[in-house]
């Protein structure tokens, strides 16, 4: 198919739910993407945080190749090795608990919402969520999402959610009632503009949850799998959640979601209460194991921490030079640059110059390079970003 034919088919045959950039990608390797014209791009926003180990990591590719040649799917009323191995790996990296496998972030959060409802046993059902949060597009997760713009047009949404201000302890203390069964949050709000939760705030949430037997549900769909320099974001905070939800980078590019529930409450779910046809399939679980191997083998957490320091230092220096940068924030390699102007044009200018970044919340540029990014690649990206910032500074 030729370029124009592909664009036309999308126009004619694919529902118009995305604002798309007219680029067609055909190949990826590590930090790079290649388009249909053979042009190379430096990818500082790999799939909304899917390719944390880079595009087509060899460990992921060989895992997939190996598994598809043996067996692709068996239903969840049987057993298989890959799901067992992945569950063990996930527990090893988090806390003593049990895993439910599904296919996406929104599904992982739906599982957590359903779990909380069962945990409340009909007596408590309210889940507290936060302004500017993002938990997914299916109705339950959408109701949990604290941003009107995603919810508009879909009323009535499921009830039982209370959205309150983020990072404000007095507001939280007023918000918790006898009816509260869970508090659900991101430790770094990704779609909300890279808003980092305060340590003291998270500590306090843990305390409230302990005291009132409330579930602390941490959505690690975007922050997980090394994004913040630790395997999971909660490990930056000296607390353990009761439930975490995962997706995005877990499958190295294939769709997977997971909910991990701490052990002593895990039996709240009984056989028949929740299910997924594809959840925890053989190929995807093996791919996810490949992601863990890749992170380990290439010492990516250490690299992410080192590169994080480097990039934040460089961005702080750029803040002095480019007055349109208001603040730089984030943890690890989850980085937001808040501007005093709209960021969309700057992201587009970067793309023209061969750098992929994202703009969220109108004024926040988001950088989330793969965990094995090098200094040289950061230098190149920031050079391009500087040019784009300069162009928009003069306007
Ligand atoms: C992307 C995202 C989701 C939704 O994940 P999908 O796989 O697109 O359903 C949920 N929570 C957070 C924090 C996310 O970033």
Structural notes for this entry:
α10 runs parallel beside α12 and α11 crosses α12 (375-393). It contains twelve helices and 17 strands. It has two domains: 58-297, Aspartate Aminotransferase, domain 2 (3-Layer(aba) Sandwich); 299-395, Aspartate Aminotransferase, domain 1. It has 395 residues and is of the alpha/beta class. β2 and β3 form a beta hairpin. 46% of the residues are buried. Bound molecules: pyridoxal-5'-phosphate (PLP).
Topology:
Blueprint: H1 3-13, E1 25-29, E2 32-35, E3 40-43, H2 58-68, H3 81-93, E4 97-102, H4 105-120, E5 126-130, H5 139-144, H6 148-151, E6 161-164, H7 169-175, E7 180-185, E8 188-189, E9 195-196, H8 199-212, E10 215-219, E11 243-246, E12 257-262, H9 282-297, H10 300-321, E13 325-331, E14 334-339, H11 344-352, E15 355-356, E16 358-360, E17 364-367, H12 375-393
Parallel strand pairs: 3-15, 5-6, 5-7, 7-10, 10-11
Antiparallel strand pairs: 1-2, 2-3, 4-12, 8-9, 11-12, 13-14, 14-17, 16-17
Helix pairs in contact: 2-9, 3-9, 10-12, 11-12
This protein binds pyridoxal-5'-phosphate.
CATH architecture of the largest domain: 3-Layer(aba) Sandwich
Q: Could you give a short account of the major beta sheet?
A: 7 strands, mixed
What is the total tally of β strands?
17
Count of helices? 12
By CATH reckoning, the class of the largest domain would read Alpha Beta
Beta fraction of the residues? 15-25%
Cofactors, ions and other ligands in the entry: pyridoxal-5'-phosphate
The overall average pLDDT, rounded, is 97
Radius of gyration, rounded?
21 Å
How many separate domains? 2
> Which structural class best describes the helix and strand composition?
alpha/beta
Strand order of the largest sheet: 4-12-11-10-7-5-6
**How many angstroms does the end-to-end distance come to?**
40 Å
């Amino acid at each position: 198919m030729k370029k124009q034919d592909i664009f036309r088919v999308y126009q004619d045959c694919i529902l118009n739910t995305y604002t798309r950039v007219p680029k067609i990608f055909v190949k990826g390797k590590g930090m790079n993407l290649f388009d249909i014209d053979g042009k190379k791009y430096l990818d500082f926003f790999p799939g909304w945080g899917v390719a944390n180990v880079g595009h087509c990591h060899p460990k992921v590719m060989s895992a997939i190749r190996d598994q598809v040649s043996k067996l692709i799917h068996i239903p969840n009323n049987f057993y298989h090795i890959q799901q067992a191995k992945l569950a063990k790996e996930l527990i090893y990296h988090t806390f003593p608990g049990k895993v439910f496998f599904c296919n996406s972030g929104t599904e992982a959060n739906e599982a957590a919402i359903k779990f909380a409802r069962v945990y409340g046993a009909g007596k408590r059902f309210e889940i507290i969520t936060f302004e500017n949060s993002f938990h997914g597009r299916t109705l339950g997760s959408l109701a949990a999402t604290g941003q009107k713009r995603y919810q508009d047009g879909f009323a009535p949404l499921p009830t039982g959610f209370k959205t309150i201000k983020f990072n404000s302890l007095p507001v939280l203390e007023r918000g918790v009632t006898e009816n509260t069964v869970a508090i659900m949050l991101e430790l770094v709000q990704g779609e909300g503009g890279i808003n980092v939760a305060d340590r003291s705030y998270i500590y306090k949430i843990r305390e409230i949850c302990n005291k009132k037997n409330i579930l602390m549900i941490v959505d690690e769909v975007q922050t997980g799998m090394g994004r913040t320099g630790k395997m999971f974001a909660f490990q930056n905070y000296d607390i353990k959640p009761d439930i975490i939800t995962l997706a995005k980078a877990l499958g190295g590019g294939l769709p997977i979601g997971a909910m991990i529930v701490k052990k002593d409450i895990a039996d709240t779910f009984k056989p028949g209460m929740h299910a997924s046809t594809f959840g925890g399939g053989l190929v995807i679980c093996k791919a996810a194991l490949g992601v863990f191997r890749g992170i380990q083998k290439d010492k990516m957490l250490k690299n992410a921490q080192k590169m994080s320091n480097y990039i934040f230092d460089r961005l702080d220096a750029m803040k002095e030079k480019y007055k349109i940068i208001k603040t730089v924030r984030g943890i690890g390699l989850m980085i937001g640059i808040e501007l005093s102007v709209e960021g969309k044009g700057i992201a587009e200018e970067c793309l023209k110059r061969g750098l992929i970044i994202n703009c969220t919340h109108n004024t926040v540029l988001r950088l989330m390079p793969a965990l094995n990014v090098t200094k040289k690649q950061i230098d190149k990206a920031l050079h391009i970003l500087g040019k784009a910032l300069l162009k928009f500074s003069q306007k």
